[in-house]
Design a protein that fits this description.
Elements (H helix, E strand, L loop, with lengths): L2 H11 L3 E6 L9 H10 L4 E4 L9 H11 L4 E3 L13 E7 L5 H15 L5 E9 L7 H6 L9 H13 L4 E5 L10 H10 L4 E4 L5 H10 L3 E4 L1 H5 L10
Helix pairs in contact: 6-7
The structure holds SN-glycerol-1-phosphate (1GP).
SN-glycerol-1-phosphate binds next to strand 8 and helix 9.
């Protein structure tokens, strides 16, 4: 079964998914075996790989090393076209729907086609919505777009539904890496109640409680990066 079918099945069965986000610029490859031992003992179901930048072009090396270490699906979460690795299993084919910068709405997508058209990567069309997490995040800086205020639930909902109506298969509500506050429960709830496709939520989730709150509000997949980067012991709290 492919990645998307698995996500749909999990949603249908009410099984929640946890993606561990690995930033290729930050991971210590010498520690990768130990890191993944902890991942495998936890409830993590997916590995996302990506960052806003990859200055040293290490994504492919990192993905290759990860694929040797885990059987969990490895999904690219690329900041731009340079971060496409054929070694991954799939790619979040992102459109930054909250922004009005054509570079991240369609230009990067067109530039990626030569790398994707004959590729075996599973393409997951994803509407990406940046929401204010009270931190000027890297996504905001690199994409040169403004996040949507958490006060503006209606705009967030309409943006998510515009994504679904245009054929996106996933919607990603993103408070930004290291956000001070994660996406509000009410926003997750409203979007989930109106959306048919699976919902990803990430940014600023750093406790088990916050993870459970996001799941209970309706997130199908939660993405956590910073909390694991800062303290691998967090995996111990999320044992299977
Ligand atoms: C960022 O949503 C992800 O793109 C994860 O955010 O690093 O804050 O967990 P954190």
């Amino acid at each position: 079964m492919n990645i998307y079918q698995n996500i749909l099945l999990a949603k249908k069965e009410g099984k929640k998914l946890l993606a561990v986000l690995i930033d290729p610029e930050k991971i210590d490859l010498d520690n990768i075996a130990t890191f993944f031992e902890k991942v495998h003992q936890s409830i993590a179901t997916h590995i996302f790989v990506g960052g806003s930048t990859d200055k040293d072009n290490v994504t492919n090396t990192v993905v290759t090393a990860i694929k040797k270490t885990t059987h969990l699906p490895v999904v690219l979460f690329p900041g731009d076209v340079s971060q496409i690795s054929q070694k991954a299993d799939g790619i979040l084919f992102l459109s930054l729907l909250s922004g009005r910068n054509p570079e991240y709405l369609i230009e990067q997508q067109i530039k990626s086609v030569p790398f994707l058209k004959d590729s075996s990567l599973e393409i997951l069309p994803t509407g990406y919505i940046l929401i204010d997490g009270q931190k000027n995040t890297a996504t905001q800086k690199v994409s040169n777009t403004k996040p949507i205020s958490q006060e503006n639930t209606e705009l967030i909902l309409n943006t998510a539904l515009a994504g679904e109506f245009s054929g996106k298969k996933l919607i990603y509500l993103e408070a930004g890496s290291g956000a001070k506050i994660p996406v509000d429960t009410n926003i997750i709830n409203v979007v989930n109640n109106n959306l048919s496709i699976p919902l990803i939520v990430g940014g600023g989730i750093r406790t088990k409680k916050q993870l459970e709150i996001a799941f209970n509000a309706g997130a199908d997949i939660v993405v956590i990066g910073t909390a694991f980067e800062k303290d691998e012991a967090f995996f111990n709290q999320l044992k299977k």
